[in-house]
Fold these 3 entries.
Entry 1:
Amino acid sequence: MTQEVDNTLIHCNKCGFEGKGKVSGAGAFIFMIVLLMASAYFLPLIVIALGFMVWIISQPSKRSCPSCKSSDVETLTQQQT
């Protein structure tokens, strides 16, 4: 089993930081796990949990600046580095 390493560099428009960005968004995954566990007691919740899982997977990952925590960042390409 291989795991993809994310080496995407970002440029922060707020503080000017350039480097590896922080990926955020784990809170929605925890909520989905709670929904799946609750569906053992109330079966229709599994439909909501599966729909929520599809929505989470379809969303792009959110990057933020590790220095100032701003989400106003741009992805740098190989030519820009």
Note: The beta strands are 9-12, 18-20, 22-24, 62-64, 73-75.
Entry 2:
Amino acid sequence: MALLIDFDEVERQGLIDWKEVIELTEKALADLGTYGEQVNHPRRRLHCPSFTRISLHAGAAMSHGLLGMMIHSELPVVSADGKALPAQVVKGRGDYVYVLYDAETAALAAIVRRRRDQRGVDYRTAATSAVGTRLLMRQDSRNLALFGSSHQARSHLHALSRVMDLQRVRVFSPNPEHRKSFCREMESALALTIEPVESPADALADADVVLEASNTTVPVFPGRMLAPGVHVTSIAGSNRELAAQQGVVRKGVDEETIKRSDGIFVNVKEQTRQDRQGEIFQAVSRGHLTWESIGEIGDLATGKIAGRKNGSEVTFYNNNAGMGVVDVSLAAYVYQRAKQHGLAREL
């Protein structure tokens, strides 16, 4: 019998553990490196004429014996009066809906619903960034430069605190009051020293890891300021339908960051090509980069390819789109938790 599960109820009961989510994400990424398109298809999006879009993420969580998809919708706006906005504004959000099927019988196993909330924890994106960052940063990394002060920054700081021995966090975002409030909140939540700063340069000073976790449409720091040995993770991503409708290609880092990076990694190269995503696609188109020189996170997780080669390299990871293999693995985890604790209802 198929089950109906409320993701938020499982979360409210304290049954979702960051450490376990990061571990299952790393396992999902290793499966991606091993099985490729058998467990993950690039995200597909449909943008209707009113600008509302739906996103579909299909994948398989073989360790749970489940496959399926996650679908969600939102109304993103990146331009006004023919001009690019500095940050993407999401005017409406539809809930996440996960559909899970049994990998052995093909029977419907569950439908999992998660409500969208601006303050909600984004486990999927943050856990993926945490795995990629851990695999690419120097092992002695302690200091974080964080660009962003909203829900993605909040989720990412929770996740990175599980994979880094953080000693200092400096936060920059354009709104001074917002970043100060964010730092107070996160200092209390994580018992860390978290400092709001006045400029990108202040954030980058002595940083071992640089994280862009925001809704920006433009680069958030100048790549020329990156120090040798630093690792950069960015979650900014665009897609060709958004660019065609609104005339804006989102970027989280500048061309200089790409040029200075000794190792460049993405989730899935086909996603970058399909969506013509800003930083990477344009760098390849201009001859600054080749597709062959770009690594994929799944191959990194399985050890098929090397990550950082030495302590002076600059590495860059573009967590450029959600992946079905991660989404279905997270839903499978919630499905198991709900069954174990009597929180699932029969459909």
Note: The chain has a mean pLDDT of 95.
Entry 3:
Amino acid sequence: MVPTSKKNDAPLSEWTISQSYASAEACQSAQNKNRDQAAAKLKTYDSMTDKQRRDLQHNQASLDQEMADSDSFEAAFQSDCIATDDPRLKEK
């Protein structure tokens, strides 16, 4: 599950289910993979030269992808594995 806004302090009942898994272990494995991929992309961006970043900003398709990646980065690092019977899901 991921927060519906940039604030991850919202109650779980307001979070969005991004994916379902058969077990907690499968969820945690996917979560770790997503976080590793996001960290690798951030590392790549950090190693770019200023010229490469400027070129990226002038290429709309790349810029659109960068914005999508930005959202997925946040989701990767703010996500949490929650059981379907977690009582916090019913809180209002």
Note: The helical segments are 24-46, 50-58, 60-78.
